[in-house]
Amino acid sequence: MSARTTATKQKLFDAALKLVGERGAASVTVDEIAAEAGVAKGTIYYNFASKDALVEALLRHGVEILAGRLRAAEGAEDSLEALVDAMLGFWAEYPAFGQLLVSELWRTPGQWHGTLSLLRDDIVSIVRGQMKRLSDAGRLPEGVEPGTASAALFGTLLVIALDWQVFQPERSRAEVRDSVMLLVRGMRSAR
């Protein structure tokens, strides 16, 4: 893919994400996305077969970015804290993506449910690997399965990030991360 095509797709992703985050995917038109991106409507159809294909590609693109950040956190000294921080950082940088993800995950069966299920599984599997390492080291509460812990952490961080962005934007990422870590560590010590 050429640098120009990559830049155009990024411009379309940014425009679509802004509009979809504000109003939801169903209520945004191709004309509006093109106007927001400052391109002709045909540019969207040149790069994507339809608005639905654009939204699906946007979902995949966002999850690839998040997955890359989570994988990078795996090698940190406190990899759980690094994972929490990476996820919060992603949601802080892309709050509209979090809104899109939540709205489409809850729309059952939504148009992108199959794609979202696969993408969610990709992210949760990265978190599950971390939870498995913690479990193997005896650092998860007795009886908590890594799969349950990973889904719980992912869901908790998504909701906390949305709450932070919408209702408590004055809090720093470090404050939010530290609160989450107190919660996580408090659960571990409650055994």
TrEMBL record:
Q: SUPFAM superfamilies under this entry?
A: Homeodomain-like (SSF46689), Tetracyclin repressor-like, C-terminal domain (SSF48498)
Q: Which UniProt keywords apply?
A: DNA-binding
Report the domain of life of the source organism: Bacteria
State if Magnesium is listed as a keyword: no
Residues annotated to bind DNA = 29-48
Q: Which residues form the HTH tetR-type domain?
A: 6-66
Give the transmembrane region(s): none
Entry's InterPro entries?
Answer: Homeodomain-like_sf, HTH-type_TetR-like_transc_reg, HTH_TetR, Tet_transcr_reg_TetR-rel_C_sf
Kindly give the Pfam families that the UniProt entry links to this protein.
TetR_N
Stated name of the protein: TetR/AcrR family transcriptional regulator
> Which species is the source of this protein?
Lentzea roselyniae
